[in-house]
């Protein structure tokens, strides 16, 4: 199957999720939302085209990660621009901290830097290979947690010793 087809479910899940967040915020017409969703799907397809590895699902995870963190994710920004939404308006409508991981067989998100990670879509990997247990799965989620927790620990230790 062509890569485009392989990514379809994951990408449409991600685009539909961001569209749902916009719809929930209110004030945007259905026709605009539909256009936004299609533009975002198209942008994601282009962006992921050469960065999609079903045999190694975590490979390229950081590259595919959609992020709003006081900076608007360029792909969301681009799709919003198509329906005339400015970055300023987007920041009012969307969570100020949003991370969306779009990986083969799994789409998950986290709102807030310390929020819990929620899975939007998960499917077993084809080929009958048992998926590795969660502990051994390294992805940008795990790396993020590790990178995030160490500085604050050191900081606490310094506070204690001073």
From TrEMBL:
Annotated ranges, domain Anti-proliferative protein: 94-113
PROSITE patterns: BTG_2
A GO BP annotation: negative regulation of cell population proliferation
Highest taxon, organism lineage: Eukaryota
Cellular-component GO terms for this entry: cytoplasm; nucleus
Family as reported in the entry's similarity comment: Belongs to the BTG family.
UniProt-recorded name of the protein: BTG1 protein
Gene that encodes it: Btg1_0
